[in-house]
Amino acid sequence: QVQLVESGGGLVQPGGSLRLSCAASRSIFSIYTMGWYRQGPGKQRELVARITIGGSTDYTDPVKGRFTISRDNAKNTVYLQMNSLKPEDTAVYYCHADPPGPLYVKYWGQGTQVTVSS
Hints:
Layout: E1 4-7, E2 10-12, E3 18-24, H1 26-29, E4 33-39, E5 46-51, E6 57-59, E7 67-72, E8 77-82, E9 91-98, E10 107-108, E11 112-116
Parallel strand pairs: 2-11
Antiparallel strand pairs: 1-3, 3-8, 4-5, 4-9, 5-6, 7-8, 9-10, 9-11
């Protein structure tokens, strides 16, 4: 059974840092692009960052220069290092596995809450 298990959320002050982790099943990690989405209060879910199996990355503009996505293929884990956090980063963050083609299924994690507040 494919699973995406997230960890690392919490409460942090503005300017602080957090690192999110997402452990994935080996069956998908080697062929899927992995990403992080977020959904803030009253907002639609949006892409934050993604990383291909080759290591190419893509970020939404509001997090460029502050967030870094990475993947450890030996551990089947994708990370999101978040620095210089702002209150507007407050959201539920979801790990996502983007399928390599139309015959594959996309997967979502259960979500982890990130709250940036003083």
